[in-house]
Specification:
- This protein has about 300 residues and is of the alpha/beta class.
- It has twelve helices and ten strands.
- Helix 6 packs across helix 12 and helix 11 runs antiparallel to helix 12.
- The termini are far apart.
Length: about 300
């Protein structure tokens, strides 16, 4: 299958690079600056799962090529609208779009921009970043990309994806219920990102403080309540599972949103929390803790 990875950053570059390393037909859609950088340095992956130096095929938006079979999306949510216009001409009738963004608001945008049959569900679990030379530094033991039909059906095209994605040095996993998996990750990430950005701290010191610990629980409960009001397919015990996970992960764990704040770059406040609070307003669900988290991020953006 012909695969287009939109961007060659820390996430798309990692998973796309692993597919390229295996020998799949992978092209990266990039900006001129990244194209010039990769032309000089190649695509470099430094990981405990194996280092790689790869020569990728590169594409700049506007170049005329045939539609791709698979398009992987891994950009920040605030870049999605521009990215859609960049890759729109490469989407054919049977193209499979696999979004790896956190949250759920992007699904509505993708369904509005393309035929619903083009868009499947997706998410990933990986800790990676770019160094000053543009190399991908991947540090987490977990490096999973999860995908599946939003209908939860096992289809022929998913079987083809499984075959294409298999045999790489990253884990590509077909989910039996990708919709639920996406909401579950959203619940976890919204809580982790919310408290770590609010307190400007890794998770450890927050949960060790009496009021920090209660804020974790309040945030989790509010987010879960909003999601349930929207009839999201949450497992009955998912709040308890996530609370236990938040108290067991490494004390130094930071959310990617917190890391973005530390770098002084934009954050996905609207995509994560504006979306949830809009649902809360429509459904009459109180969310005082989430409102403080959202205000914190908006004030940060205003002062950036």
């Amino acid at each position: 299958m012909k695969i287009l990875v939109v961007g060659a950053g820390a996430v798309g570059g990692y998973f796309g690079g692993r597919l390229l390393e295996k020998g799949e037909d992978v092209t990266f859609l990039v900006r001129e600056k990244r194209k010039n950088q990769l032309a000089e340095t190649d695509l470099v992956i430094k990981s405990d799962h194996g280092d790689a130096i790869l020569k990728p095929k590169l594409l700049v938006s506007g170049e005329k090529v045939e539609a791709y079979d698979v398009i992987l999306l891994s950009m920040k949510a605030y870049h999605l609208d521009a990215a859609v216009e960049d890759f729109r001409s490469y989407v054919g009738e049977n193209t499979i779009i696999v979004p790896l963004l956190n949250g759920m608001a992007h699904m509505e945008k993708l369904h509005a921009a393309f035929h619903e049959s083009n868009v499947i569900g997706g998410l990933c679990f990986v800790e990676s970043t770019l160094d000053e030379q543009g190399a991908i530094i991947q540090t987490s033991p977990i490096h999973d990309l999860v995908f599946g039909e939003l209908s939860a059906r096992k289809t022929e095209r998913m079987e083809k994806l499984v075959h294409t994605f298999s045999g790489t040095k990253a884990n590509f996993v077909l989910s039996e219920d990708i919709g639920q998996a996406m909401w579950h990750k959203y619940l976890f990430i919204a809580t982790l990102a919310g408290v770590t950005t609010l307190f400007r701290s890794p998770i450890g010191p927050i949960r060790e403080d009496e009021f920090g610990s209660s804020t974790i629980k309040q945030t989790l409960e509010e987010v879960a309540g909003i999601m349930k009001s929207a009839e999201a397919p949450l497992a009955e015990n998912i709040a308890d599972v996530n609370l236990e996970k938040l108290h067991s992960i490494g004390a130094g764990m930071k959310s990617s949103m917190q890391r973005d704040m530390e770098k002084g770059v934009s954050v996905e406040a609207e995509h994560f929390y504006g979306y949830l609070l809009e649902i809360a307003k429509e459904r009459g669900v109180p969310a005082p803790t989430l409102e403080k988290i959202y205000a914190n991020l908006r004030i940060y953006e205003g002062q950036r």
